Amino acid sequence: MKINEFKDGIKVNELLLVSNINKGVTNSGATYLTITLQDNTNSIDGKLWNATDEQVKNLVEGRVYDFKFDVLQYRNNLQAKILTFKEVDQTNLDLNNFVVSSPISKEDLKKEIYDDIKLIKNETILQLLRAIMKEYEKNFFEYPAASKNHHNFVGGLATHTLGMLKLANNLCDNYPILSRDLLLAGVVLHDIGKTEELSSPILTEYTTNGKLLGHISIMQAKIYKVACDLGIEETEEVMLLRHMILSHHGEYEFGSPVKPLIPEAEALTFIDNIDARMNSLSKAFDQTDDEAFTPRIFAMESRAFYKHKK
Question: Please, are residues 248 and 186 in contact by the beta-carbon 8 Å criterion?
């Protein structure tokens, strides 16, 4: 049985990947573990109460175990009450069974994103974009867009980018004030710094580089370096793209060193937010029955959303 099939009250005995472990102590002094379990459909938080020293020692992030647990409803969310777990031989496991991937194949992601890049006519922008994509292509199509919250799965960065490209093209069709060349390039480039900010496509953590610099600063510096290598660093197009990267979170308190000051930067901020929020809602709705509320969603200002029938 897959995690996306779990229901309140069922008993489960399945092989699942441990993606996160946090240790805690109850008021009575007993040790417990909060464990995130996952397969290739979803993840679920579990509790192992009264954990022994041996259990704490033997449970390791990034490994697959044979778990037995009860599924319970807790604060509008499913939770696993872990009863037992056993170690299993890791050598013959197919990790594809335990990793959530993009619903869009890598081949389709590549085709659609590169088709949109072909729409760009400005040679300076195109030259810069092709050079950066050549350097980052492998990780671009494998990395998540975040360690949690939105598009936090293998291929999530490219999936997020494609969703934004679709929105960007629609906006350019509706509003002639926008430069399609600038906006499409800004969409493709805006989060590539996350391939350095995050550690890997699977069991993602923040790197030292990511913690100290962040993906916005990383990508702005990369654009300037590549532009210098190409001899185009003094062009207006490069300056505008650097501005779009620096301002794409919209507000100082959200991590942008500057606020959007060109129409394309303003549009980029909103379509980034729309695509991220719709993905967060989609994930929550996947685990919510019709005519019920989701759990509070941290990325949506901790609001609980009502899932009505379509």
Answer: yes
